[in-house]
Amino acid sequence: MSRGLSRKAYEPLAEGEKYEPWVPATEGPLEFTFRSILLGIIFGILFGAANAFLGLKSGLTISTSIPVAVMTVAAFRAFSRVREGSSILEANMAQTIGSASSSVASGVIFTLPALFLWGMDPSIAQMTLLAMSGGLIGVLFMIPLRQYLIAREHGKLPYPEGTACAEVLVASEGGGARAASVFWGLGIGALFRLLTGWVKLVPGEVEFGVPGLRKGEISSEVSAPLFGVGYILGPRIASVMVGGGLLSALIIIPAIAYWGAGRTTPLYPETVLTITEMSPGAIWTRYIRYIGAGAVAMAGLITLAKSIPTMIESFRVGASQIRNRLGSDDVQVERTSRDLPLKVVGIGISLVALALIVIPAYGVFTGALPRAIATILVVIFAFFFVTVSSRIVGFVGVTSNPTSGMTIASLLGTSAIFLMMGWTDSVGMAGALTVGCVVAIAASIAGDTSQDLKTGFILGATPARQQIGELVGVITSAAFVCGAVILLDRGIGFGTEELSAPQATLMKLVIEGVLQQSLPWVLVGIGAAIAIIVELLRIPSLPFAVGVYLPLATMFPVFLGGLLRWFAERGARDGVEKDARREQGILFGSGLVGGAGLTGVLIAGAAVWSISRGGQPWGGLGIEYTHIAGNLTGLVTFAILVGIFWWIATRKLAAPEEPPKSAGVDGV
Prior knowledge:
This protein has 668 residues and is an all-alpha fold.
């Protein structure tokens, strides 16, 4: 096919007008097939594990719908040499199943690593049950909203990632050249991870002191996946995030160093070293982390507060849609309007809630009553934030979905209730965290489900089959995501320089602050004030606050990736070439994330295997660079990465195709 999507795929419909999808409702092509399910499961497992690694390292995860869709089309083309008859709806089903894992990974890495940081050892069965519960609740609660949010609000709620994925699948009908960008990224991402994280031929970070600025330091990781994330985010958000990092590294840390120069005693929360004796990294760990936590918490709540009108409307609409659809399951509807029956939704949610009460998924709660209270909180918060998330992503996409704010709000509410009940020990903290985990996954998967159903609406998929596909994606990826998390903790360790688990550390601080009242509130208040000031200056407060909270070394490659995208698009001769460069770079960047993440999990697995046999993980080649030689090696390696990225993003494909208009990153 050479035609593209019609204008009606983007515009609101007139009163009484009906949208005609790419595949008409009267046709019944292949859709929910064994190969679409198998490919979706495989790609979901791969990208779920990769996203877990990326999130634990940088606090960010990427949306995987588009790369999974492209790789699926490439795989189907390979199959077609043996068997004819693949359809666009099969490819859409595979990406629907495969993309669910990114949302599961987001919720898991946001929360559950805090249990390991507290010295607890949750089993993979407990973690998997929590992950599955959040995913299933999120998908099931979203189903009654589809008819209104996706169908009736078509053109009013654009759902950018969902529309972009539909464009990719339609354009890919005419050629598979774009898949090469993903596979190049997978290979190069794996290679860079091996060089920096296993062989250690290349230093993982370069750093330069700033002359005349006490403890001022500019640093950057030599990281292919973070560079790819920056290209996906684009120059604006990447610049805002690095702005927060520069504020911490070049203003706040030096200010603390100058202020503490005359102090002869440690400043709380540090209890051993004076500020003069502390390195810039130590100051960041003991002070900036709390300032950043306050900034992220306040920015998340601000983002949530700004969405209150949408939240109220979404909640009202969601409740009314459920009431209106009760008893309507027997009505005959055409294929493209067929959802799972509401009785299936109700039974499914009830079974998940019952499982959370009966099975000790919360780990430390031994009685049925505490588990019942925790489950009630899960259902209440999940229903509210699923409704909110499903609508918000329709306007701003997954990129700007305030999942952090929703999770923090859930933790604050749960912790406050546990505080009133006297559950302030480790049992209460773990219980509050696991409630937040289920809610975070539910809110995240609701946004992903909404985007996938939008893709299906445009293409003419069967909603009920897509909804089953989402459930399959959650069930099949949950154990592998949780297994990857456990493997990474045992092989590398959370809270280390390699895997700092920043989002889970933030959630840990929030819970401890409420239940144990142990936070240095002055530092947290400074961070909250920074977020408010930034918001008043009309700068996006949440990405800026994330930049304050994360080390500059993490933010700098993200900024450079966004800068490269700016140069690539600016140098394009026309709009078609600009869109092609955007798409090819996004696909290559997604591949970098996947390749590096999967290799990171494999390296952790090798370390665990070595330890289990009584040995020690391999420490690399043992090369010890001087400071100058290490920086030079890192810079040259990074320059090579930039050159490869530029070539991939700007090369001309044999057959130009209609590219997607946007793509996004989860979990900010």
